[in-house]
Amino acid sequence: MTDLPQGPASRRVDRAGVVIAAVLAALAVVLVWDSRQLATTTMYGMGPEVMPVVIAIGLGLLAIGNLVDALRGNLPARESADRKAVWLILGGLVLLIAIIGLGGGFIIATSALFVTTSAAFGRRALLADAAIALVLSTLIYLAFDRLLTLSLPTGPLERLL
Amino acid sequence: METFAALAHGMAVAVQPMNLLYALIGVFLGTAVGVLPGIGPALTVALLLPVTYKLDPGGSLIMFAGIYYGGMYGGSTTAILINTPGESASMATALEGNKMAKAGRGGPALATSAIGSFVAGTIATIGLAFLAPWLVDFAVRFGPEDYFALMCVAFITVSATFGDSPIRGLTSLFIGLTLGLVGIDKLTGQARLAFGIPELLDGVEVTTLAVGLFALGEALYVASRRHHTEERIEPVRGSLWMTREDWKRSWKPWLRGTMFGFPIGALPAGGAEIPTFLSYSTEKRLSKHPEEFGKGAIEGVAGPEAANNASAAGTLVPLLTLGLPTSATAAMMLAGFQQYGLNPGPLLFAERPDLVWGLIASLFIANVMLLVLNLPLVGLWVKLLAIPQPWLYAGILVFATMGTIAAKPSVVELSMLAGFGVLGFLMRRFDFPIAPVVVGLILGPIAESQLRRALAISLGDPMTLLQSPMSATLLGIALIALLAPFVMKGMGRFKANED
Amino acid sequence: MISFPSRLFGAVVALTLAAGAPALSQQLELKIMAPAAPGGGWDQTARSMQQSLVAAKIARSVQVTNVAGAGGSVGIAQFVNGAKGDGNQLMVNGFVMVGALAMNKSPVTLEQVTPIARLTEEIQVIVVPANSPIKTAQDLATAVKADIAKVTFAGGSAGGVDHVMAALFAGAIGADAKKVNYIPFSGGGESLAAILGGKVTAGISGYSEYEGQIKSGKLRAIGITSEKRIAGVDIPTFKEQGIDLVIANWRSVVAPPGITPEQRKVLSDAVASMVKSDAWKEILKQKGWEDAYLADEAFADFLKKETVRVTDVLKSVGLVKS
Predict the structure, then answer these.
(1) pLDDT digits 0-9 by tens, C276-313
(2) C4-121+250-316 architecture in CATH?
(3) Interchain proximity A39–B421, CB inside 8 Å
(4) Chain A contacts of B192, Cβ < 8 Å?
(5) What is the pLDDT of residues B217-246, one digit of tens each?
(6) Long-range contacts, B493-496 (Cβ 8 Å, 24+)
């Protein structure tokens, strides 16, 4: 919510801002590259390759705008971030995806996400959380899969139920 | 007055005790499934349709209407409480609603959303009963060029969701537009930005993006800065119910939201998203408390919720009068009719007035049931926020991913969800507004295909956009909307620079 | 996953079994994949099969799964790879999948699955607004020949049955299929509005979708695509108007690759008794689907021919690169 420059201290080149500008420019290049492999089969009006180019031009202009902001140090101030917490949650998401992808089922997958997230928010009682997670996700599974007939991925635990 | 008699008869059928029970069960089931993010009312109805097979036509239609309204309200509940819009139409609700919930005003937010839905649903149902034939005539005249012009108006008005910096807002919007390109081009069947991944051919699911950006992004962000300020959520601060002030600030947005939702919902390609955005930005402009927007303004919940509900009744106009299913939900309604060998269309009103009016009466009853069921639950819902932070966010993440797991349990879809979570985190960290990304994803593809349709019909002549009176008018409105705030903002900026 | 109703049916089936009812196939526990989201034609076909198979006690339980994506490309890939050799699985498919697989350059093709049967078809129709000067198929042909660009056709998604039909119509009257001004709309609702509003010259769709509008006189049907006239439908075929245009939006059911001939026979027999059941006939009537049952080898032949025809048309309009 702090969009105003934070005084002279922040008037330095903001590296993150430069990276953002570079990412936008790269996105524009990908759009143009992708649109070039479209076949122009449209007989009347506008083909599918026009809009990507228009958006790419917009992204290019915005990359310049963001770059100018970054070079002037016009970006809002940021506080330091707790990287460990972020990685823990992301790890939980990766676990979730992997467990579902490998057929481990809904209960184990969501329990893994629950435990890592609660650890990211500072809980250290892993076993207690794991127990809570298993009970919770089993209840959710029973309610939604069995009672409301949604089909959730099944694994070894679900087959026991 | 034939209409009144028919409606009264429909009512008489709907208020039989057994049918009221069906309505209650329907609303309950619909809410239970509808709270899952990524499962909107259409999918809720599709999943629960088999439950209604065993009932007689009247009871089935009533339960059906209940499921539908329940599913819609469930999406708003999660939007407000855990910043996870259950469907694209409740995105605007999440913007202010969740801020209210965090400030201890979740009760009033849920209440204004429930009552607003009720008011809008009621007015729109009356509109459906009396204006349908006239409205449908107007809707059919709306051509591709007119839709494109309407999109232009929408694009400009949603700049209200842009936050303070135009460059950042536009950057977000263009990221959304880029995501909107992904998948098979509707007009030529060619794949854009799919990189040979079959799951990408259908494009980016709006709910996957919204849940990733809002719920996952928020959880990551809050976790990342927990060591700075322990974010404290107070479940209730002040009144759990709407105060006199809340009522005063809500009733006009309810009515205005209905005015946006019903006619746009009646357009065959109108949808529910555009009216909710239009309502949000209108309320932001008209509000006597513009400073509260972004921090939890009740108008920003009341208006979009009413618009969402009214547009749902609006989609019934083309469905019942023309047999046009113009939304996924309307298509499911059609399936509901077909259970009884009925095909909605111009003949339905004449051939089976009992069922048509029965349905309209059911919608009305379901609306009442929703209010009866949900208002007492507001207190309970809000208590959810009292759960200790680690478990609360862990639960939110489980819930947020579960919608995607149930709807599309593929590794690609879940990875996209996680990726959008990271994007949402980074955007929050570097102070880019979130909402325009979703706006771009929704409106971009519609604007593009309508423009291309218009140009294909006119054989490439862009003047077609000005030749249709409707389109020319809308483009004029868009131009005014574009220039007016610019002039004012420019003046404001001069003043700011002088300080 | 067993839903409540099917659990009930399970109990009923168990009771009848105990009473000494014959038929081994009652042991069948089937999974039917609808390679589309809930609500569409394939999903409805799968769920109708589920209803009839259970109601007619042909199978003990039937579970429908939805794998949506890209006209069925995602679903068939999962089916071919994941269900290989499984004699208890079926997948619904149809006309649209043929084109979708070709356009999406899918590595999986319909040659890999085991054909079981064609089930239903829907006849296609060309309509014009009631106040249009075009009265017959020949009028439309004349207009197309005069200036093909100015005759706009509204219909469903690019490469779908409506699009293929527009190209076939042009080809049948000797016009250049590549030059047809076909405008795809998402969903029948949107294209119908464009036709009623006079934004396009003509519209193409399944007959049942526009039946109400045609009967109420808001749309004029200028021809249907069946071989012969259909009882109860007062619209001339294209054939009798001198235009060789026969096409239908068919839906069928297939089994995974690599199943044994015995497994295939069990599935074929189950489907064969299903199409004879009252429950199935009742559903066909409700939904306005024509019974187009065609089994085993005859269906396999049909599938091959249709694949060649559709791919050729899509090549001719430039949607598939040759």
Answers:
(1) 888 888 888 877 788 888 888 888 888 888 888 888 88
(2) 3-Layer(aba) Sandwich (3.40)
(3) no
(4) 34-35, 38, 48, 52
(5) 888 988 888 776 655 666 666 677 788 888
(6) none
